[in-house]
Every structure is written in C-alpha cells, then in structure tokens.
Recover the amino acids of this structure.
C-alpha cells in the first residue's frame, strides 16, 4: 500500500485532566519535516510528541497543533500575588503626589502587571499519557486518510502504465512496416533517377537504416521500467523517491525513442509516452 502525503485529521479528548484538541496537517515534502505547536505550559511534551509522529510518518511536512484547556486535576489554579499588589498600590500613591491630575488605576492595569497573576504549574505526568493517546489516534486517522488517497493514486498510475504498454506495443508492431516503406522509398528513388538497382547496395542501405532507427533496446527498457513500477506499487511502503527516479528513466527512454523516430506514428507514440510519464511524475511528488 502506498500513501499520499496530503491529509488532515482532527481529534478531541477530555476528562478530569482537561480538554485537548489535536489537529494534524500533512503536505508533500522531500523529507520528513515536523512543526509542533503547543501551549506554553506543555512545551515539555514536544520531544515525546515528535518521537510519536516519527513512528507513524516517514516522509512529508507534518504540522501538529495542540490546544489544551486544563481541568481540575491538572492543578492550573490562578492565584494573586497580594504582596506585589500592595506594593504597586503604595507606589502609585507616591507617584500621584507628583502629578497635578493623577488618573485612577484600574483593576485590569494591576492584573496585567508581570507577576501579579500566578498560575500553578500543570502536573504533566497527569496529562502526558492522555495527550500521547490523543496524538496517536489523530496519527492513525491521518495515516488512514493518506492511505485512501494513496490507493486512488495507485489506480491512476496503473491506468497510465497500461496506456504506456499499449504505445510500446504499437511501436514494436509498426517497426516492420517502417522498414518495408523505406525499402519501397529507396527503390522508387533509384527508379526515378533511372539508375540500375543494385540489390547489394539496397541491402546495405537498409541495414544502415535499420540500425539507425532500431529502438528495440529502448522499448525493452521501457517495458522493464514499467514492470518495476508495478512491482513497487504492489510492494508499497515508502516508495516516492524510487518512483520519481523511475519516471526520470522512462522519460529518458521516451526522448531517445523520439530522437530515433523515422515516421509520424513513432513520433506521436514518443510524445504520448512523455505525456503519460509526466502525468505520473506530477502525482509521484505527492507519494510518501
């Protein structure tokens, strides 16, 4: 089974430990790139979450966004530093003596002062297991979504490969006709020039022409590459880079086929092969 690198999943969990929402976005990337966004109070979990993601995903850019609201057991109780509040009020009274029209101090002004609000540290041991369980559920959903799209891509690839096989068979079948047409063309030129036809010279010209347009090796290599692509698709796993390499090799053979073309049909087949290869290659960029 192959996997696409484009997917999205969203999971939510809640309990006495709190409420958490985990969103995972996956897009194509040459390597594995992780972007983990956590609340300030949960930054200590980043390393464990990255390790968890690596167990499920091997390639692609993964964005993980975790939103968390502490529960009663988490211990995130807000307290006020009363001593600091008292000191701020006294300082405000002293400063007010120097002002002609002092403005009143609002409650929110005091609350915004650094250190006034004190939040007890969250007990990470209480929620870490729950967060990882939530993350794993999201990763399983993400992998399932990637697999579904990967299966669709696989069917598209197999269809294009079958069309490529048809083009190769058509060229191979047409090669004897090309040689026969060339023989007739040479004979006609000798006749138009009123030159006596030398059978030995004609055979020599035909041998040279056959060598020049011989594409049997290119067709065999295209067949071999197509078989290898099918084998990789059947095997599954992390195959994106190997498929991309094979598309490059197929394109090289299709170019050579076009360069050796001696008639319109072979040229058309070369162009059609390159179109099919490019269609696969574009989608291969999105395969893990």
């Amino acid at each position: 089974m192959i996997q696409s690198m484009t997917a999205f999943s969203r999971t939510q969990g809640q309990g006495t430990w709190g409420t958490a929402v985990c969103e995972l976005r996956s897009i194509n990337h040459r390597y594995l790139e992780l972007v983990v966004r956590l609340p300030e109070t949960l930054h200590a979990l980043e390393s464990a979450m990255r390790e968890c993601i690596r167990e499920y995903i091997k390639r692609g850019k993964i964005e993980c966004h975790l939103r968390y609201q502490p529960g009663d057991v988490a211990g995130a109780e807000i307290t006020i530093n009363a001593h600091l509040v008292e000191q701020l009020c006294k300082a405000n009274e002293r400063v007010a003596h120097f002002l002609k029209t002092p403005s009143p101090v609002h409650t929110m002004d005091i609350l915004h002062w650094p250190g006034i609000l004190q939040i007890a540290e969250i007990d990470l041991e209480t929620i870490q297991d729950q967060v990882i369980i939530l993350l794993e559920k999201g990763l399983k959903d993400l992998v399932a979504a990637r697999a579904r799209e990967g299966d669709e891509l696989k069917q598209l690839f197999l269809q294009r490969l079958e069309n490529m096989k048809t083009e190769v068979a058509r060229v191979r079948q047409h090669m004897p006709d090309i040689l026969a047409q060339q023989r007739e063309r040479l004979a006609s030129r000798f006749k138009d020039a009123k030159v006596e036809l030398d059978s030995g010279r004609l055979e020599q010209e035909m041998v040279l022409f056959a060598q020049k347009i011989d594409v049997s090796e290119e067709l065999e290599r295209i067949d071999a590459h197509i078989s290898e692509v099918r084998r990789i698709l059947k095997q599954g796993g992390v195959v994106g880079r190997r498929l991309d390499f094979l598309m490059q090799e197929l394109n090289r053979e299709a170019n050579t086929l076009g360069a050796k073309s001696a008639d319109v049909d072979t040229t058309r087949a070369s162009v059609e092969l390159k179109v099919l290869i490019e269609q696969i290659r574009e989608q291969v960029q999105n395969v893990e």
Remarks:
- Residues 124-192 form the longest helix (69 residues).
